Every structure is written in C-alpha cells, then in structure tokens.
Amino acid sequence: MTTFKSAAADLPTVGRRIAAELTREGEFCLWLEGPLGAGKTTLAGHIFRALGLPETTPVTSPTSHATTASNDPSALIV
User: Fold this and answer.
1) In angstroms, rounded to a whole number, what is the distance separating the alpha carbons of residues 28 and 51?
2) Tally of CB atoms within 10 A around 15
3) How far is it, in rounded angstroms, from Cα 27 to Cα 57?
4) Rounded to whole angstroms, how far apart are CA atoms 51 and 16?
C-alpha cells in the first residue's frame, strides 16, 4: 500500500503519479478516504484524466449524486 499526502495545488501531480503506479500493477482497486470536501473527487478526476479519461467526461462524487437526487422528490436514494 502506498500513502500520498499533499496540498490541493499538488493534486494534478499526485494524480499522475498514482496513475503511473496503477498502470504498472495491472488490475487495481483504489481507496480514497477523507472528510467531505477533502478533495477525493478532484484527485480521482486527475487520476482518471492521467489514465486517458477525456476532459469532457465529468467525474462526480457519490455525495454529489445523493444531494442532487435528494432535491428531486421522485428520486429514490438507496
């Protein structure tokens, strides 16, 4: 297991470093943990972009989906 700690301004660089590590290992599972607003989704976006995800594809958090859906009375939140 590798642990990275950095400032928000370093997230693009950290994302590229993590992506490089992940591609060397083959299949992988990535666990990001932290409080709400810590930058997990932003970091995930940088990792996915480094792995080739187009800039036009949005990277959103499960929290974002839950709060958006909770504003819709017909939405089912599981």
Assistant:
1) 13
2) 22
3) 22
4) 8
pLDDT tens digits, residue range 31-61? Answer: 888 888 888 889 999 999 999 999 898 888 8
- Residue 49, classed as helix, strand or coil, is helix
Token pair listed for 26: 């083959």
pTM score of the predicted model: 0.70
In 3D space, the residue among 43, 40, 18 whose CA is nearest the CA of residue 28 turns out to be 18
Report the b/e string of 39-67 with b at 16+ CB within 10 A. Answer: bbbbbbbbbebbeeeeeeeeeeeeeeeee
In this structure, the chain runs to a length of 78
